[in-house]
Fold each of these.
Amino acid sequence: ETGVTQTPRHLVMGMTNKKSLKCEQHLGHNAMYWYKQSAKKPLELMFVYSLEERVENNSVPSRFSPECPNSSHLFLHLHTLQPEDSALYLCASSQVLGQPQHFGDGTRLSIL
Amino acid sequence: AQSVTQLDSHVSVSEGTPVLLRCNYSSSYSPSLFWYVQHPNKGLQLLLKYTSAATLVKGINGFEAEFKKSETSFHLTKPSAHMSDAAEYFCVVSDQGSSYKLIFGSGTRLLVRP
């Protein structure tokens, strides 16, 4: 039981679709993160939120749009994605920024 | 800039034998270092962390790592491998300017033979 739940676990979508990834943490943490894990590449930090404020946008294309409505929930809205966006998207949370991060099991995204 | 290098992309050991996963770091300051493990189709789990206290850090599941400043190394060890240890292991350093930014190594896949 990780305490960080991601849905869906798997998602297949076309390049013109719009979908959203959801992350929920049950740990009472104040910081949340989105990462991209591609084959044969190190994990890439995408976005960071602290107390629902975005503190990091790591040069991510605008076709990825994050949303943090409260400290327990984090979304990643997707539209007009490219095949190279196929990857495992991981959500993480920490008590505050700089504390160890707890990861969810990820959403495996495939773009057709 | 900080970085970590995991020297082996794959390590294979027999069950019951010692495990050594190697990691070298590059940092101009005293870094915070971590080891994470990722089992198939799972997220990352924190094994242990070093934050400038004791140089020998004990983690979960019998793993430990030793911070050696003179060698800029932070190798992960376990005395006796178990089948359930088969997974991918990541050495991680935190960014000096923004401690919440984690810089990941490329990973080492551990195979445990029966």
Note: Chain B touches chain A at residues 34, 36, 41-46, 49, 90, 94, 98-107 (CB under 8 Å).
Amino acid sequence: AQTVTQSQPEMSVQEAETVTLSCTYDTSESDYYLFWYKQPPSRQMILVIRQEAYKQQNATENRFSVNFQKAAKSFSLKISDSQLGDAAMYFCAYRSDAGGTSYGKLTFGQGTILTVHP
Amino acid sequence: NAGVTQTPKFRILKIGQSMTLQCTQDMNHNYMYWYRQDPGMGLKLIYYSVGAGITDKGDVPNGYNVSRSTTEDFPLRLELAAPSQTSVYFCASSYVGNTEAFFGQGTRLTVV
């Protein structure tokens, strides 16, 4: 079974600064997807960024980028120019793409609470 | 499109009571899921469905039941509520071949 670990229960950053959230995962599969989800106080789960394991290039979405290290099984999220609206719980998640039997099931890490100071 | 809609948003149950959490999606997605999120923890998969009439257990299915009579609806049933079922419940859906899952807004359930 796959596991996802987020070792930082809480992180804080000053507005306009950069912060990196860590995520490691364990899998024996070679085909999979990795995601970062944002959960603000409203509880809504918002997809921030996704990475396909077969792609060597790191995904980027505006101020959000990832550092995907497949051999090290590491998938960190970098938030640049942090804004007050970035304050939320962030979850790292894994989805298998093996053999057509994964059915889109997600395995989540424990989450990291990000506080943004003005 | 409304996306994934869950009802109710909040509920308080007494120990031993039963209830059904409703979930409906209007995106014609094959796959649907129920997750629970305990305080300070990530989401854990309770049950999932790959299409109407087909359901299967996730990682934490004990104390729950599901059914999928239509593509749109995937209700979660709690038969004998226990304090350990106090949690936030999320329904989600996705389409085969598409990596993104769409989530409802969650149901906060408290069992007292």
Note: Residues 22 and 71 of chain A are 15 Å apart (CA to CA).
Amino acid sequence: DIQMTQSPSVLSASVGDRVTLNCKASQNINKYLNWYQQKLGEAPKLLIYNTNNLQTGIPSRFSGSGSGTDYTLTISSLQPEDVATYFCFQHNSWPTFGAGTKLELK
Amino acid sequence: EIQLQESGPGLVKPSQSLSLTCSVTGYTITSGYDWSWIRKFPGNKMEWMGYISYSGSTNYNPSLKSRISITRDTSKNQFFLQLNSVTTEDTATYYCADVAEDYWGQGVMVTVSS
């Protein structure tokens, strides 16, 4: 299995901050990397697919980048409704998820 | 709009089988897509368990291959998860999903305990 390592595991930030979440794969995943947002009691919601493609309906403050084994989700200006856990997900081979980054308000 | 809804027992005894149903509305499961089961363990780890395609073929996570079965009832537009010989480590929230189109059920929490 490809292992996905997310950092940090918990991130505290203020409204308006630029926030960066990281995801590292144990091998090259050829940009087959998605980002999901999950709020408490809800199903995961797709934000970004294939590294840098914004899912329909997702605010433009979310963006993704990366290649090879290293990927990043950026929120350009943190909003209160962005408090959630964020998962990276690779589908280059059998799909695997990262352990998540919990984003909190400072 | 496509909607998915999981159902099944919330408590299963160790060594028994876990059986869940995913009811799909708004789309016919034989028309397209792969229909998946994904679980989230306490502590947040998520695992893609497997899927059944619109054509009926299945693909399972190798770590579960000996214990898992995903089937469907096309007349009811439902697909099913069976996980055999469960242990407490199978305690999780189970989701059915069409991941490609980002349609998910709300999830059902299953506890394995005697």
Note: Chain A touches chain B at residues 1, 42-46, 55, 85, 87, 94-97, 99-100 (CB under 8 Å).
Amino acid sequence: EAGVAQSPRYKIIEKRQSVAFWCNPISGHATLYWYQQILGQGPKLLIQFQNNGVVDDSQLPKDRFSAERLKGVDSTLKIQPAKLEDSAVYLCASSPWGQGNEKLFFGSGTQLSVL
Amino acid sequence: GQNIDQPTEMTATEGAIVQINCTYQTSGFNGLFWYQQHAGEAPTFLSYNVLDGLEEKGRFSSFLSRSKGYSYLLLKELQMKDSASYLCAAAGFQKLVFGTGTRLLVSP
């Protein structure tokens, strides 16, 4: 079974530039999550999709971050414009149903460095 | 509100036993996850406790006390490859909240 795919693996940009990350979840998983993990911290949920609808985006900085999952499968997360404090690993995860007691399957992440 | 608390760092020697504690406060609590994360890699699932008590899975065991809002992960017969961060995560309704993680360093 293929895992969660993410790209790119690494990205270096200058502040005020824009960047986009892509995620393809495990086939058949209804729920897709984007997490931000700053070095030395635990993952912080940015946005959770159930199929192509948003379940939770309460911690997404909507003035600069956006995400979509148009066909309920793969997803993109965009940052525009980027700030220095956005330097982090962006993890995508998926789960079958989106119930709180499901284990998450994580992708390898995209490591973003904003200079 | 939701709050997860675990130690920042722990050290232990190869072959020893280590216990990583986690306390949590979360609304609509459904259960407690432990994930392992090696440096530069994604978190991987270790265990899930929904009922009080100890669940054993090989060298790793996880304990939960719902009344005390407390869990621990017990690692036995430590190996060098166990050096990693261990993330405690509390599951609520449709939501999973992670702690900051405990970085475990296993030395020879």
Note: The longest strand of chain B covers residues 84-92.
